[in-house]
Design brief:
The chain is an alpha/beta fold. The chain has helices at 14-18, 21-27, 64-76, 96-105, 121-136, 158-169, 217-227; strands spanning 2-6, 32-36, 50-51, 61-62, 82-93, 108-112, 142-148, 198-201, 204-207. The strands form 3 sheets. The protein has a 5-stranded parallel sheet with strand order 2-1-6-5-7, with helices on both faces. Strands 3-4 form a two-stranded antiparallel sheet.
Length: 228
């Protein structure tokens, strides 16, 4: 799967990608990540892509043209089953079911990261027109989804993009090494323990629950279910 991230700050992804399972997946060629900076698609000699909003208001708004051109560039790369993701705090909550569907249905994911007061609404409308035209023309199918990653406002779309990237990528065979590591596919408990069996702290002993040491797999699974 190829992830295309449209962002003003591609460097903000560096530390996370390079020091995580995602970085290993990129190195092992299980996934590919490409970045598109809207500043590279503007004619402004200062590479400016934000403007004051019409009718006034605080902050700045990202112009539509540079975002649209970045999306068009991403769409040209390997015309396969594609999902374009528009991030919005007021839209559908992104969850594991969304991630599972995306990992099975699409080969390309384009994530558009907003900043400041948002993106000129016309960018979304034109992207929808581009998608509709591709369907009518019989080209590779493109879909658009609008997601929120939580009931709060963030400074930009980079963190939500990382969340979607991570949640989808870990479902791709080979990314986790062992697909059984997916918590959703096994009986997981919010409580986990490891050695030593008895941990002492300031004279008090903290023990691993006896059930986990019993070897009785049936009872252990029942214990995990109760803890979920």
């Amino acid at each position: 799967m190829i992830f295309h991230i449209i962002t003003l700050f591609p460097e903000s992804f560096d530390s996370y990608i390079n020091s995580s399972i995602i970085g290993r997946a990129v190195k092992d060629k299980k996934i590919k990540i490409k970045f598109y900076n809207p500043r590279d698609f503007t004619k402004d000699k200062w590479r400016r892509v934000d403007q004051k909003p019409y009718a006034g208001g605080p902050g700045m708004v990202l112009e539509a043209a540079s975002i649209i051109k970045a999306v068009e560039k991403a769409l040209k790369d390997k015309p396969e089953k594609t999902l374009a993701v528009w991030l919005s705090p007021s839209k559908k909550q992104f969850d594991n079911l969304c991630a599972e569907k995306i990992s099975k249905k699409y080969k390309k994911v384009i994530i558009i990261c907003g900043r400041y007061e948002g993106i000129d609404e016309r960018a979304k409308k034109i992207i929808k027109d581009i998608i509709q035209s591709s369907k009518e023309g019989g080209e590779a199918k493109i879909d658009l989804a609008e997601f929120s990653v939580g009931p709060y406002i963030l400074t930009g779309g980079e963190l939500p993009a990382m969340i979607i990237l991570d949640t989808v990528a870990r479902r791709i065979p080979g990314v986790l090494g062992n697909i059984e590591s997916l918590e959703e596919t096994r009986t997981a408990s919010p409580e986990v323990y490891t050695r030593p069996e008895i941990l002492e702290y300031k004279g008090k002993k903290y023990r691993v629950p006896k059930i986990l040491l019993s070897g009785n797999h049936k009872k252990i699974e029942e214990w995990k279910k109760k803890k979920k």
